[in-house]
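P.,

For your records, the input lines for the assembly:
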Amino acid sequence: AGVLSQLSSHSRNGRVCVSPCFSLQRRNNSTSPKIKVDLDSSTGVAVLMMQSPPVNSLSLEFLTDFCINLEKLEMDKSCRGLILTSTLSKVFSAGLDIMEMYGTSPERCGEFWKAVQEMWLKLYGSNMVTIAAINGSSPAGGCLMSIGCDYRIMADNPRYSIGLNETQLGIVAPFWFKDTLVNTVGNRTAELSLELGQLYSAPEALKIGLVDRLVPQDQVLSTAQDTMSKWLAIPDHARQITKSMMRKQTIDKLLSNREADITNFVSFITKDSIQRSLRMYLEMLKSRKV
Amino acid sequence: MANALRNSAKFGFSGVLSQLSSHSRNGRVCVSPCFSLQRRNNSTSPKIKVDLDSSTGVAVLKMQSPPVNSLSLEFLTEFCINLEKLEMDKSCRGLILTSTLSKVFSAGLDIMEMYGTSPERCGEFWKAVQEMWLKLYGSNMVTIAAINGSSPAGGCLMSIGCDYRIMADNPRYSIGLNETQLGIVAPFWFKDTLVNTVGNRTAELSLELGQLYSAPEALKIGLVDQLVPQDQVLSTAQDTMSKWLAIPDHARQITKSMMRKQTIDKLLSNREADITNFVSFITKDSIQRSLRMYLEMLKSRKV
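Structure tokens returned:
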């Protein structure tokens, strides 16, 4: 439900996709860390680098790593701000790992979905200043991560795209994805965006307010650092109470419905018709690579 | 007096303002004065014509109720019947709303349903207005408003009930919820729909001032999504429809329902109270006086 890793080398609209050779690689050895964190205790800023080839897919393993790292930073009194970025060329994150949803058991699906919820709850509800340094394409779950942050800086490349494109795959963004999107771009744009499953180029994303700033690719991280200094100049307690006031209602809506949301997801995704949609999509991706 | 008023043209409301005078503020296009002297349209002519192309799954619903596609009880009943038929028709996936009348999409609620009518009749009328909105805003079909003329008040409500709005690029056409200019008030569900479309601040400003926006202004604030030349409104709606219909139905429908359910439920759980409120408000002497003054103002412009 965050779908769509654009693994094909061909794509509509000339958008950048991951090169075909990645899709033939074996799944990344799980002893290499998928996430690297540099914490500068003097500035209080951590940079979390997603480095899980080919496309920083949000698998159960990745999400678990992510949440562990986030929790450590949240508990670390010396850490006041977090920059999220990617080490992979052209991709921030291609979203939820479709293999966690296709052909897996209901139990495993449920475990996976709980981890997706956890990622969003920790990120959207973080007390730290969170800045997404979006240095590549960011569909689906990658978009969710981005809009979970306080601020979004994207590389000014019209071939990078970002958006919640579930419906294009025949699936549906859950209500908390929708709420986060509405909170970011407003109701009308969110309705249009979600129904059409739209992916926006970086310039389009800026225009609708899905991202806050566009800068040249090589300035994304430095701009994030500069922006972070500005945010950290605000007294922490005041900023945190304000952030919580803004986001609490949205967060509580999921908190009070977590189990039901997992149940809904599992029963939806395990439907024959939905599994068929997913299979067709996987086959479409494969055929593009040949 | 009542007779003369009944013989006068029907104009819109939703509480508001069909600009039937040939003179109008801001140079906006209004219906020509000769319409106002016509008799009420013969009720055996259909006020609504539907062309359903079963191969594409697209229906075009044409409002053809001269002079200004006023939303009367009769019109609304026809509208709802047609909408329900299309909703139940498995071969129909998308609906385009448009008008056959020159320069007018719909001038809104028929003021004669609110002026000098019995409370019972008022209540019946208001229930039909609710029904129109519930069916349209809650439709599972892709709905596109091809706004080929002015669309104040109830016409605006219809438009913002759709998924997408394409308007003719004519600065003399206007659209908006202008109730307060007439001394009446848009009900909460009109307000909710407007907020969902243009955001809270703009909705507050728009509703308090009862603003009518020209087509270019409407695009600017997001009240409509696209402006095209008059003769391209319908074809653009068809092209847009194809794009929307390329999305798997079930995914789009569940998403649409997720977006709109809360707003719809707010009226569903308060329908009777909303009718009662409307009837007691509209039948107040002071409000009836406002309506009469408005009718007289329109009449005097035509002389």
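Two observations worth noting. Chain A touches chain B at residues 166-173, 175, 178, 186-188, 190-192, 194-197, 273, 277 (CB under 8 Å). Confidence is low (pLDDT under 50) at residues 1-26 of chain A.

Regards
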